[in-house]
Amino acid sequence: QVQLVESGGGSVQAGGSLRLSCAPSAYTSCTYDMSWYRLPPGKEREFVSAIDSDGSTNYADSVKGRFTISQDSAKNTVYLQMNSLKFEDTAIYYCKADRNCGGSWEFGYWGQGTQVTVSS
């Protein structure tokens, strides 16, 4: 079981910024693909951003140019820098990890979620 601890959520006015963190309990010798999803109130979960073990990134069209996903030098924490926040960014944000530790992939380890609220 991979433990993913999220932090950095909060309340901010439109146009402001927040930085989310997602820290696995340990990277060990495994290869990790990390991603962010969000759950807006009354809506379905949607993809936000992802970063592969080789450093390649992907973004949803709704956040491209405003959000940046990155990994720290120790490769044990993934960040989501959120700039120019809009009211429609309000959601619970979840990080997800997939990992390969010995030639086979394990999918769908989820963090507990962190609330982001943007006021207009």
Helices and strands in order:
Blueprint (H helix, E strand, L loop, with lengths): L3 E4 L2 E4 L4 E7 L6 E9 L6 E6 L5 E3 L7 E5 L6 E5 L8 E10 L4 E6 L3 E6 L1
Parallel strand pairs: 2-11
Antiparallel strand pairs: 1-3, 3-8, 4-5, 4-9, 5-6, 7-8, 9-10, 9-11
Describe this protein's structure.
The chain has strands at 4-7, 10-13, 18-24, 31-39, 46-51, 57-59, 67-71, 78-82, 91-100, 105-110, 114-119. Strands 2, 4, 5, 6, 9, 10 and 11 form a seven-stranded mixed sheet that branches. It is elongated and about 50 Å long. The chain contains no helices and eleven strands. The mean pLDDT is 92. It is 0% helix and 54% strand. With 120 residues, it is an all-beta fold.
Keywords:
single chain, mainly beta, 120 residues
- Estimated share of beta-strand residues: over 45%
State the total count of DSSP E strands. Answer: 11
Which sheet architecture does the biggest sheet show?
7 strands, mixed
**Count of alpha/pi helices:** 0
Helix and strand string, N-terminal first?
EEEEEEEEEEE
- Characterize the quaternary organization of these chains: single chain
